[in-house]
Write a structure and sequence with these properties.
Order of helices and strands: HHEHEHEHEHEHHEHEEHEHEHEEHEHEHH
CATH class of the largest domain: Alpha Beta
Strand order of the largest sheet: 3-4-2-5-6-1-7
Bound molecules: adenosine monophosphate
Number of domains: 2
Distance between the termini: 51 Å
Length: about 425
């Protein structure tokens, strides 16, 4: 089905260069007509499947169909509000919206606001309102408290990476923002994953939604090869260096558990002559933007990041993602490895699994319905005798069970997860 049959005006279609947008992706085919009907939508589709354009195109189309007519006394009004969990994603979504609006005869005002930078230019930028505001929740609340933005006229609310925004970490901020929005509005929730824990919150937000779930069909799932390499924690930096050098990797995104670990690993790689930079929430926004720009321009070869980089970031031609530390959950695993294998490209996701993280990795495998053979590389063989126990298929209730299989003493799934998480500290 071509883009031209989805109900979008010719000026929007003109912005879709055939090289970049040869045909709608499945999520675009399903979501664009639904959003144009004006109904609430909850859409999930795999990472890298064109979700941004799936809401950006119909939001722009709706904007043009419903020209701005704010009532008197609402000078800083906004038509559409897109909330995203990270600053980098805000920039990226803003860029996509602007590139899609470039051929429109009406000059739409698309304003991006996020924390970590001076608020004054953003306050100035919101004078006179905006057609679309893309925002991270914290900065939007700051702007609301300063009366710099008026959300009472918002007609479309988009939550990109919706499950993250509905998650505990953002819950209070999101609730405060929702209170500033009119009750009558269209709600669009987009994410690659919707953890069961956030579904009731999603349900409370949506009215008679159209639910779109684009399950990856055989052959259309992101082409990501997943590898798990057994390695003891203290050997991981050495293994990372070894893999980088022997495979001639051009660009690698490495995930670590803490900001401190990111700093240490980057420093060690730099010492070995590998151009590496840390990327985490403690860095200034200027530094974060610089690292990302250098990474995209191949000036930096390896970025070691916390999960702040796991959501939504679209780094073209990112062939490898490494889980130096395992992610906390299977959902985080999906988002991390989804940074590679995007838009039809293939990718490689390597996870370092040690004797002490084996149980946690098994849980991830189980939740992902995958089974990744453990590889042992010469020179990096785990020495801990416990490996044999960890490698056994069912540690509890067997001869290898450290609890001896005593009824009532067996660690349940949650215990094992907690235990694995406690052991996930960086070297
Ligand atoms: P997203 O899931 O929105 O982060 O998009 C992932 C990548 O897919 C981005 O690089 C987009 O430019 C690209 N993309 C979006 N729509 C299409 C399409 N219809 N055909 C090919 N690539 C696309």
């Amino acid at each position: 089905m071509p883009f031209s049959s989805l109900g979008l005006r010719p000026e929007l279609l003109k912005a879709l260069k055939p090289k970049d947008y040869p045909a709608p992706t499945p999520i675009q085919t399903l979501a664009i007509p639904a959003v144009l009907q004006g109904v609430d939508v909850q859409a999930s589709a795999q990472t890298g499947s064109g979700k941004t354009a799936a809401y950006a195109l119909p939001v722009l189309e709706l904007l043009l169909r419903q020209p701005r007519q704010w009532p008197r006394g609402t000078p800083r009004a906004v038509h559409s509000l897109v909330l995203v969990p990270t600053r980098e994603l805000a920039v990226q979504v803003g860029e996509t919206l602007r590139s899609l609006a470039v051929q429109l005869p009406t000059n739409l005002k698309i304003t991006v606001v996020f924390g970590g930078v001076s608020i004054n230019p953003q306050m100035m930028g919101l004078r006179g309102g905006a057609d679309v505001v893309v925002a991270t929740p914290g900065r939007l609340l700051d702007l609301l408290s300063k009366n710099a933005v008026n959300l009472s006229q918002v007609q479309v609310l988009v939550l990109d990476e919706a499950d993250k925004l509905l998650d505990l970490g953002f819950q209070d901020e999101l609730q405060a923002i929702l209170q500033s929005l009119p009750a009558q509005r269209q709600n669009l929730l987009f994410s690659a994953t919707f953890a069961p824990a956030v579904q009731s919150l999603a349900d409370a937000l949506l009215t008679d939604p159209v639910r779109i779930d684009v399950l990856p069909l055989a052959g259309t799932a992101p082409d990501i090869v997943q590898r798990a390499i057994s390695v003891e924690a203290p050997q991981r930096t050495q293994l990372l260096k070894h893999l980088f050098q022997t495979h001639g990797w051009k660009r690698v995104l490495v995930f670590a558990a803490t900001q401190h670990a990111c700093q240490i690993i980057a420093a060690k790689l730099r010492k070995a002559g590998i151009n590496a930079e840390p990327f985490h929430g403690q860095l200034s926004q200027g530094k974060r933007s610089q690292v990302l720009a250098d990474f995209k321009a191949s000036r930096v070869k390896v970025v070691i990041a916390t999960d702040v980089a796991s959501r939504g970031l679209d780094i073209s031609e990112l062939p490898v993602v490494v889980n130096f530390d395992l992610p906390r959950s299977a959902v985080d695993y999906t988002h991390r490895i989804g940074r590679t294998g995007r838009a039809g490209h293939s990718g490689l996701a390597v996870s370092f699994v040690g004797p002490e993280t084996e149980a946690h990795w098994r849980l991830i495998e189980k939740r992902q319905s995958i089974s990744v053979p453990r590889e042992v590389l010469p020179g990096f063989e785990p020495q801990t005798p416990d490996t044999a126990v960890a490698d056994a298929p069912h540690p509890t209730g067997t001869a290898n069970d450290p609890t001896g299989g005593i009824k009532g003493k067996r660690p349940n799934k949650k215990d094992k997860l907690r235990q694995a998480q406690r052991l996930l500290s960086p070297e």
